[in-house]
Design goal:
The protein is mainly alpha-helical. It has three domains: about 55 residues, Orthogonal Bundle (Arc Repressor Mutant, subunit A), CATH 1.10.10; about 40 residues, no CATH class; about 50 residues. The protein contains nine helices and no strands. The termini are far apart.
């Protein structure tokens, strides 16, 4: 296959991939490498997609944060997921700082806990431990988890 045909095929695959959802540049690069395209060709396609505005790690990260935050996830998990997708650490750090604050996170934790209260209204240590583990998996900071769970009186 000549270079121009290969380029068109790779471009078409990337456009189809980006049609499903936004991706980071590294995700596109890994996709093209899995499909057997050379690094040079992948870099060329990525630069082309960036010039058209189809690939933008900053916009991808901002949208990703907004979506995951709405879904009840904390900053630690979102940071990890973005870095795993190859978004530059400086972009991630700046956007996390802009989009998360402790008061908001504490409110979101309390909303999540309100949805998970036991049916019989009986809160025991086992329930508290399970909620702490749930919130930790969701990526909330330990200090905020402890602060939110202090409101549950276990002295009964």
């Amino acid at each position: 296959m000549d270079q121009e045909t290969l380029l068109k095929k790779a471009r078409s695959r990337v456009l189809r991939l980006l049609g499903y959802r936004a991706r980071s540049a590294r995700e596109v690069e890994e996709y093209l490498e899995r499909k057997g395209y050379s690094k040079d060709l992948a870099d060329r396609i990525i630069e082309e997609m960036k010039s058209y505005g189809y690939l933008d790690d900053h916009r991808f990260a901002a949208d990703f944060i907004s979506f995951r935050k709405t879904g009840g996830h904390g900053s630690k998990k979102i940071r990890y997921e973005l870095q795993a997708r190859g978004v530059d650490r400086q972009i991630v750090d700046r956007l996390i700082d802009e989009n998360f604050n402790p008061e908001e996170d504490l409110d979101r934790i309390r909303e999540l806990l309100a949805k998970r209260e036991p049916f019989n209204g009986q809160v025991d240590q086992r329930w508290v431990n399970r909620q702490a583990a749930f919130l930790k998996r969701r990526g909330f900071p330990d200090g905020l988890i402890l602060k939110a769970l202090k409101n549950y009186d276990l002295s009964e």
